[in-house]
Specification:
about 170 residues; Pnp Oxidase, Chain A; 3 helices; alpha+beta
Length: about 170
C-alpha cells in the first residue's frame, strides 16, 4: 500500500511529524513506513500532602514530568530496523547517544493545524514486527521527551494561566 501525502499529511490520518537530531539528520513519518497510529501521554508526578492544620484536608498537585509516546507503522521498508541498528552501533562504537527533536503537526476537524515540538526526545523499545506469509508487518517505536512546546496559540483555554507564567 502506498503512503499518499496531501499537503504533508498522511491520507487517512490527522498527524504528521518530522524528526531531526544534532548531527543534521532529518526524517519524516513517511520515511519510516505507513504511520497507522501515534499517541502522546504527558507524564505527571502526583503529589499529595495531608496537613495537620485546616482540618486535615489533603492538598494535591500534579507536576509535569516529561511525556511518553508510541508510534505504529506498517512496514514498507527496513528503515525502522536500520535506524535502531545505527543507534546501537553509534553507542557501542563511539558512545554516541543522540537527542532528537520531533516537530508535530495535527490537523483538526475544524481544518486548523496545531503544531508542537518535542525537544530532548529519545527513541526506545522498538518492535520490529512479526513476519508471516499472509499479513502485513506492524512495527512499533516508543519514545520519551522532556517536554512539549505548543507552537500554535489556537486556544483560549487557560489563557490567563499561560500569560502568568511569562
Amino acid at each position: 500500500m502506498a503512503n499518499l501525502l496531501a499537503n504533508g499529511f498522511n491520507i487517512g490520518t490527522n498527524v504528521s511529524f518530522v524528526v531531526s537530531d544534532q548531527y543534521g539528520d532529518v526524517f519524516s513519518a513517511a520515511d519510516l513506513g505507513n504511520l497507522m497510529s501515534m499517541d502522546l501521554t504527558l507524564d505527571m508526578h502526583q503529589i499529595k500532602v495531608t496537613p495537620i492544620t485546616n482540618g486535615g484536608y489533603p492538598i494535591y498537585q500534579s507536576i509535569p514530568n516529561g511525556l511518553t509516546g508510541t508510534m505504529e507503522f506498517v512496514r514498507v521498508n527496513g528503515n525502522i530496523t536500520s535506524m535502531f541498528t545505527m543507534l546501537y552501533n553509534a553507542f557501542y562504537t563511539a558512545g554516541t547517544l543522540p537527542q532528537f527533536t520531533m516537530s508535530i503537526s495535527v490537523l483538526n476537524v475544524s481544518g486548523t493545524v496545531d503544531q508542537y515540538t518535542l525537544p530532548n526526545l529519545v527513541f526506545h523499545t522498538p518492535d520490529f514486527g512479526r513476519f508471516s506469509g499472509i499479513s502485513e508487518v506492524t512495527q512499533k517505536i516508543e519514545f520519551n521527551a522532556s517536554t512539549i512546546i505548543s507552537n500554535s496559540n489556537n486556544s483560549n483555554v487557560l489563557a490567563n494561566v499561560a500569560t502568568a507564567a511569562i
